[in-house]
Protein backbone atom coordinates (compact mmCIF):
# COMPACT_ATOMS: atom_id res chain seq x y z
CA UNK A 1 0.00 0.00 0.00
CA UNK A 2 1.16 3.36 -1.01
CA UNK A 3 0.50 6.18 1.41
CA UNK A 4 0.55 9.86 0.45
CA UNK A 5 2.70 11.52 3.00
CA UNK A 6 3.04 14.79 1.12
CA UNK A 7 1.72 16.87 3.99
CA UNK A 8 3.93 15.32 6.66
CA UNK A 9 5.83 17.99 8.67
CA UNK A 10 3.41 20.71 7.62
CA UNK A 11 1.94 22.83 10.37
CA UNK A 12 -1.68 21.96 10.99
CA UNK A 13 -4.63 23.02 13.03
CA UNK A 14 -8.33 22.24 13.22
CA UNK A 15 -8.91 24.80 10.53
CA UNK A 16 -6.03 23.50 8.40
CA UNK A 17 -6.17 19.74 8.51
CA UNK A 18 -3.48 17.46 7.21
CA UNK A 19 -3.63 15.61 3.99
CA UNK A 20 -4.32 11.90 3.49
CA UNK A 21 -2.16 9.43 5.39
CA UNK A 22 -1.17 12.03 7.91
CA UNK A 23 -2.79 13.40 10.92
CA UNK A 24 -2.31 16.55 12.96
CA UNK A 25 -0.37 15.88 16.10
CA UNK A 26 -2.52 17.09 18.99
CA UNK A 27 0.23 18.96 20.84
CA UNK A 28 2.93 19.62 18.21
CA UNK A 29 0.45 20.87 15.62
CA UNK A 30 2.41 19.34 12.72
CA UNK A 31 1.26 16.69 10.30
CA UNK A 32 2.65 13.24 11.00
CA UNK A 33 2.22 9.87 9.27
CA UNK A 34 -0.56 7.81 10.64
CA UNK A 35 1.17 4.37 10.20
CA UNK A 36 3.11 3.13 13.31
CA UNK A 37 3.14 6.59 14.72
CA UNK A 38 4.09 6.81 18.38
CA UNK A 39 2.58 10.10 19.30
CA UNK A 40 3.98 9.85 22.82
CA UNK A 41 7.54 10.56 21.54
CA UNK A 42 8.84 14.10 21.48
CA UNK A 43 11.02 15.40 18.66
CA UNK A 44 14.63 14.47 19.12
CA UNK A 45 16.96 17.38 20.04
CA UNK A 46 20.11 17.86 17.89
CA UNK A 47 22.86 15.57 19.21
CA UNK A 48 25.64 18.23 19.06
CA UNK A 49 23.62 21.08 20.32
CA UNK A 50 25.75 23.10 22.84
CA UNK A 51 24.49 25.51 25.38
CA UNK A 52 22.32 28.34 24.20
CA UNK A 53 24.39 30.91 22.38
CA UNK A 54 24.78 34.22 24.21
CA UNK A 55 25.76 36.93 21.81
CA UNK A 56 27.07 39.11 24.68
CA UNK A 57 30.02 36.82 25.57
CA UNK A 58 33.10 36.27 23.41
CA UNK A 59 33.58 32.70 22.32
CA UNK A 60 37.03 31.21 21.68
CA UNK A 61 37.63 31.07 18.01
CA UNK A 62 35.05 33.74 17.33
CA UNK A 63 35.85 36.99 15.58
CA UNK A 64 36.07 38.89 18.89
CA UNK A 65 39.76 38.16 19.44
CA UNK A 66 41.69 39.18 22.61
CA UNK A 67 43.87 42.24 22.12
CA UNK A 68 46.91 41.15 24.20
CA UNK A 69 48.77 44.43 24.02
CA UNK A 70 45.75 46.31 25.24
CA UNK A 71 45.19 43.93 28.11
CA UNK A 72 48.85 44.23 29.17
CA UNK A 73 48.52 47.98 29.22
CA UNK A 74 45.43 47.76 31.33
CA UNK A 75 47.19 45.46 33.83
CA UNK A 76 49.64 48.14 35.12
CA UNK A 77 50.34 47.38 38.79
CA UNK A 78 51.15 50.16 41.32
CA UNK A 79 54.84 50.20 42.30
CA UNK A 80 54.08 49.77 45.97
CA UNK A 81 52.55 46.41 45.16
CA UNK A 82 55.52 45.17 43.19
CA UNK A 83 58.14 43.31 45.25
CA UNK A 84 61.78 43.92 44.36
CA UNK A 85 63.28 40.86 42.73
CA UNK A 86 66.03 40.51 45.30
CA UNK A 87 64.03 41.56 48.31
CA UNK A 88 64.60 39.07 51.09
CA UNK A 89 61.48 37.80 52.69
CA UNK A 90 60.75 39.32 56.05
CA UNK A 91 61.73 36.99 58.86
CA UNK A 92 58.65 35.45 60.21
CA UNK A 93 59.91 35.04 63.74
CA UNK A 94 61.75 38.40 64.12
CA UNK A 95 60.38 40.20 67.10
CA UNK A 96 59.96 43.96 66.69
CA UNK A 97 62.65 45.98 68.56
CA UNK A 98 61.58 47.52 71.77
CA UNK A 99 62.91 50.93 72.94
CA UNK A 100 64.49 49.65 76.18
CA UNK A 101 66.35 46.86 74.38
CA UNK A 102 68.80 49.33 72.74
CA UNK A 103 72.35 49.26 74.29
CA UNK A 104 73.34 52.38 76.25
CA UNK A 105 75.85 54.72 74.56
CA UNK A 106 79.50 54.05 75.59
CA UNK A 107 80.82 56.20 78.42
CA UNK A 108 83.25 58.99 77.54
CA UNK A 109 83.94 60.88 80.74
CA UNK A 110 86.54 63.26 79.30
CA UNK A 111 84.52 63.97 76.17
CA UNK A 112 87.33 63.31 73.68
CA UNK A 113 85.10 61.00 71.63
CA UNK A 114 87.13 57.93 72.62
CA UNK A 115 85.01 55.59 74.77
CA UNK A 116 86.37 55.05 78.27
CA UNK A 117 86.91 51.35 77.70
CA UNK A 118 89.25 52.15 74.79
CA UNK A 119 90.70 55.46 76.06
CA UNK A 120 94.36 55.41 77.16
CA UNK A 121 93.59 58.49 79.28
CA UNK A 122 89.93 58.11 80.28
CA UNK A 123 90.04 61.13 82.60
CA UNK A 124 92.07 63.42 80.33
CA UNK A 125 90.88 64.67 76.97
CA UNK A 126 93.36 63.34 74.40
CA UNK A 127 91.73 62.69 71.06
CA UNK A 128 95.10 61.78 69.47
CA UNK A 129 95.69 58.91 71.95
CA UNK A 130 99.45 59.48 71.50
CA UNK A 131 101.51 57.03 73.57
CA UNK A 132 105.26 57.47 73.00
CA UNK A 133 106.48 54.52 75.07
CA UNK A 134 103.49 52.35 74.12
CA UNK A 135 102.87 51.29 77.71
CA UNK A 136 99.11 51.76 77.44
CA UNK A 137 99.10 55.10 79.27
CA UNK A 138 98.66 58.01 76.86
CA UNK A 139 101.21 60.83 76.90
CA UNK A 140 98.55 63.18 78.24
CA UNK A 141 98.33 61.22 81.51
CA UNK A 142 101.66 59.35 81.63
CA UNK A 143 104.04 60.72 84.27
CA UNK A 144 106.97 59.13 82.39
CA UNK A 145 106.23 59.68 78.72
CA UNK A 146 109.42 58.12 77.37
CA UNK A 147 109.38 55.23 79.84
CA UNK A 148 113.00 55.61 81.01
CA UNK A 149 112.03 55.58 84.74
CA UNK A 150 112.68 59.33 85.12
CA UNK A 151 109.40 61.17 85.78
CA UNK A 152 108.63 63.94 83.30
CA UNK A 153 109.06 66.51 86.07
CA UNK A 154 112.76 65.71 86.50
CA UNK A 155 113.66 64.15 83.15
CA UNK A 156 116.15 66.38 81.30
CA UNK A 157 114.83 64.91 78.04
CA UNK A 158 111.26 63.83 78.82
CA UNK A 159 110.41 62.77 75.27
CA UNK A 160 113.60 60.79 74.62
CA UNK A 161 114.42 57.70 76.65
CA UNK A 162 117.73 58.04 78.51
CA UNK A 163 120.17 55.44 79.75
CA UNK A 164 119.67 55.85 83.49
CA UNK A 165 122.43 54.92 85.92
CA UNK A 166 120.79 56.27 89.03
CA UNK A 167 117.71 58.12 90.19
CA UNK A 168 116.24 58.26 93.67
CA UNK A 169 117.47 60.73 96.20
CA UNK A 170 116.34 59.00 99.38
CA UNK A 171 118.27 55.85 98.41
CA UNK A 172 121.49 57.79 98.82
CA UNK A 173 121.18 57.09 102.55
CA UNK A 174 121.80 53.43 101.77
CA UNK A 175 124.92 53.95 99.72
CA UNK A 176 128.50 53.43 100.75
CA UNK A 177 129.65 57.03 100.48
CA UNK A 178 132.15 58.08 103.09
CA UNK A 179 130.60 61.49 103.56
CA UNK A 180 129.71 63.18 106.77
CA UNK A 181 126.81 64.95 108.40
CA UNK A 182 123.32 64.13 109.60
CA UNK A 183 121.10 63.56 106.57
CA UNK A 184 117.42 62.87 106.93
CA UNK A 185 114.75 61.94 104.47
CA UNK A 186 111.84 64.35 104.33
CA UNK A 187 109.18 63.16 101.94
CA UNK A 188 110.93 62.74 98.62
CA UNK A 189 113.76 65.03 99.67
CA UNK A 190 117.03 64.44 101.46
CA UNK A 191 117.90 67.25 103.85
CA UNK A 192 120.87 68.48 105.81
CA UNK A 193 119.51 70.53 108.73
CA UNK A 194 122.70 71.69 110.42
CA UNK A 195 125.35 74.26 109.55
CA UNK A 196 128.73 72.80 108.92
CA UNK A 197 131.69 73.54 106.73
CA UNK A 198 131.23 70.59 104.47
CA UNK A 199 128.67 67.83 104.89
CA UNK A 200 128.16 65.43 102.08
CA UNK A 201 126.79 62.08 101.01
CA UNK A 202 127.74 60.08 97.98
CA UNK A 203 126.78 57.14 95.81
CA UNK A 204 128.49 53.91 95.13
CA UNK A 205 131.19 54.24 92.54
CA UNK A 206 129.33 51.95 90.20
CA UNK A 207 126.83 54.69 89.52
CA UNK A 208 129.41 56.73 87.63
CA UNK A 209 130.66 55.07 84.45
CA UNK A 210 133.96 55.78 82.81
CA UNK A 211 132.23 57.52 79.97
CA UNK A 212 130.27 60.64 79.17
CA UNK A 213 127.55 61.31 81.72
CA UNK A 214 125.19 63.92 83.06
CA UNK A 215 124.48 64.50 86.76
CA UNK A 216 121.57 66.61 87.88
CA UNK A 217 120.04 67.58 91.19
CA UNK A 218 117.45 70.05 92.42
CA UNK A 219 117.82 71.72 95.79
CA UNK A 220 116.31 74.38 97.97
CA UNK A 221 118.46 76.40 100.37
CA UNK A 222 116.58 76.67 103.66
CA UNK A 223 119.01 79.05 105.41
CA UNK A 224 122.62 80.14 105.59
CA UNK A 225 124.60 80.30 108.80
CA UNK A 226 124.03 83.66 110.51
CA UNK A 227 127.10 85.84 110.54
CA UNK A 228 128.98 83.67 108.07
CA UNK A 229 131.04 85.72 105.64
CA UNK A 230 132.04 82.94 103.27
CA UNK A 231 129.14 80.69 102.33
CA UNK A 232 129.87 78.53 99.31
CA UNK A 233 126.51 76.85 99.76
CA UNK A 234 125.37 73.52 98.33
CA UNK A 235 126.34 71.67 95.20
CA UNK A 236 127.45 68.48 93.51
CA UNK A 237 130.81 66.83 93.53
CA UNK A 238 132.36 64.19 91.33
CA UNK A 239 135.49 62.27 92.10
CA UNK A 240 137.94 60.21 90.18
CA UNK A 241 137.55 57.22 92.47
CA UNK A 242 135.15 56.27 95.22
CA UNK A 243 136.28 58.02 98.38
CA UNK A 244 139.20 59.45 96.46
CA UNK A 245 140.68 62.84 97.12
CA UNK A 246 140.74 64.13 93.58
CA UNK A 247 137.83 65.47 91.61
CA UNK A 248 135.71 68.60 91.39
CA UNK A 249 132.93 70.40 93.21
CA UNK A 250 130.27 72.43 91.48
CA UNK A 251 128.89 74.92 93.95
CA UNK A 252 126.43 77.75 94.17
CA UNK A 253 128.29 80.40 96.15
CA UNK A 254 125.48 82.01 98.11
CA UNK A 255 127.67 84.91 99.21
CA UNK A 256 128.16 86.18 95.68
CA UNK A 257 125.44 84.29 93.79
CA UNK A 258 128.25 82.82 91.84
CA UNK A 259 128.47 79.41 90.23
CA UNK A 260 131.91 77.94 90.65
CA UNK A 261 133.91 74.80 90.05
CA UNK A 262 136.60 74.00 92.58
CA UNK A 263 139.04 71.19 93.14
CA UNK A 264 137.67 68.74 95.62
CA UNK A 265 140.92 68.37 97.57
CA UNK A 266 141.46 72.05 98.32
CA UNK A 267 138.17 73.78 97.64
CA UNK A 268 139.46 76.70 95.78
CA UNK A 269 137.42 78.10 92.88
CA UNK A 270 139.16 77.42 89.63
CA UNK A 271 136.36 78.27 87.24
CA UNK A 272 133.60 80.78 87.79
CA UNK A 273 130.52 81.89 85.89
CA UNK A 274 129.25 85.44 85.67
CA UNK A 275 127.97 86.02 89.21
CA UNK A 276 124.99 88.26 88.64
CA UNK A 277 123.18 85.81 86.38
CA UNK A 278 122.47 83.31 89.17
CA UNK A 279 119.05 83.91 90.80
CA UNK A 280 119.06 84.67 94.50
CA UNK A 281 116.29 82.24 95.35
CA UNK A 282 115.51 78.67 94.36
CA UNK A 283 114.71 75.97 93.95
CA UNK A 284 117.82 75.50 91.84
CA UNK A 285 118.32 72.79 89.31
CA UNK A 286 122.03 72.15 88.99
CA UNK A 287 123.60 70.05 86.27
CA UNK A 288 127.11 68.77 85.67
CA UNK A 289 128.10 67.25 82.37
CA UNK A 290 131.28 65.28 81.80
CA UNK A 291 131.81 64.91 78.11
CA UNK A 292 134.92 64.54 76.04
CA UNK A 293 137.68 66.37 77.87
CA UNK A 294 135.61 68.93 79.71
CA UNK A 295 133.46 69.15 82.81
CA UNK A 296 130.81 71.83 82.96
CA UNK A 297 128.46 73.06 85.66
CA UNK A 298 125.31 75.10 85.23
CA UNK A 299 122.09 76.19 86.87
CA UNK A 300 119.45 74.86 84.44
CA UNK A 301 117.54 77.58 82.67
CA UNK A 302 120.10 80.24 83.48
CA UNK A 303 122.59 81.44 80.93
CA UNK A 304 125.58 80.77 83.11
CA UNK A 305 128.08 77.96 83.08
CA UNK A 306 131.42 77.16 84.67
CA UNK A 307 133.71 74.77 82.86
CA UNK A 308 137.09 73.10 83.26
CA UNK A 309 139.06 71.00 80.82
CA UNK A 310 140.34 67.75 82.23
CA UNK A 311 141.34 64.89 79.95
CA UNK A 312 140.95 62.46 82.86
CA UNK A 313 137.26 63.41 83.14
CA UNK A 314 136.27 62.61 86.72
CA UNK A 315 134.49 59.37 87.32
CA UNK A 316 134.10 56.95 90.19
CA UNK A 317 131.49 58.48 92.44
CA UNK A 318 129.14 61.41 92.73
CA UNK A 319 127.47 63.07 95.68
CA UNK A 320 125.78 66.15 97.04
CA UNK A 321 127.08 68.42 99.78
CA UNK A 322 126.42 71.56 101.77
CA UNK A 323 128.65 74.35 103.19
CA UNK A 324 127.31 76.45 106.02
CA UNK A 325 123.77 76.08 104.71
CA UNK A 326 120.68 74.05 105.54
CA UNK A 327 119.59 72.51 102.27
CA UNK A 328 117.10 69.94 100.96
CA UNK A 329 117.83 68.01 97.76
CA UNK A 330 114.79 66.83 95.82
CA UNK A 331 116.52 64.29 93.60
CA UNK A 332 119.82 63.24 92.15
CA UNK A 333 120.04 61.46 88.83
CA UNK A 334 122.87 60.17 86.66
CA UNK A 335 122.27 59.39 83.00
CA UNK A 336 124.38 58.76 79.94
CA UNK A 337 125.22 62.10 78.36
CA UNK A 338 123.27 62.66 75.12
CA1 LIG B 1 90.97 60.64 76.95
CA1 LIG C 1 102.84 55.97 77.79
CA1 LIG D 1 111.12 59.90 81.40
Summarize the topology.
Layout: E1 22-24, E2 31-33, H1 68-74, E3 164-167, E4 183-186, E5 189-192, E6 199-202, E7 213-224, E8 235-239, E9 247-253, E10 258-263, E11 269-272, E12 284-291, E13 294-299, E14 305-309, E15 317-322, E16 325-336
Antiparallel strand pairs: 1-2, 3-16, 4-5, 5-16, 6-15, 7-12, 7-16, 8-9, 8-15, 9-10, 10-11, 12-13, 13-14
Bound molecules: calcium ion (3 copies).
One calcium ion (CA) binds next to loops.
On the 0 to 100 scale, the average pLDDT is 79
The structure class reads mainly beta
CATH topology of the domain at 166-336: Jelly Rolls
Ligand types: calcium ion
List keywords for this structure.
338 residues; mainly beta; Jelly Rolls; 8-stranded antiparallel beta sheet; 6-stranded antiparallel beta sheet; 1 helix; 2% helix; binds calcium ion
Question: Concise description?
Answer:
Helices cover 2% and strands 28% of the residues. The chain has one helix spanning 68-74, and strands at 22-24, 31-33, 164-167, 183-186, 189-192, 199-202, 213-224, 235-239, 247-253, 258-263, 269-272, 284-291, 294-299, 305-309, 317-322, 325-336. It is rod-shaped.
Amino acid sequence: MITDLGSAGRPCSPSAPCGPGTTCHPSLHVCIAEVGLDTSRKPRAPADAGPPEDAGLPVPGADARLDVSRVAADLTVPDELVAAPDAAPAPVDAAPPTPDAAPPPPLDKDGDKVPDNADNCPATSNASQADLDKDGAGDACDDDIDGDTLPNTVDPFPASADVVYYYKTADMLLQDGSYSGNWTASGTSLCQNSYHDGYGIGLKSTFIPDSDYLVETQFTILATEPGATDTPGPGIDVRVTSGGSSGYDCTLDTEYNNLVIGEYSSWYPIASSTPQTVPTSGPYRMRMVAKGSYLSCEIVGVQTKAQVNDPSKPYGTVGVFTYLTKTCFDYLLVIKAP
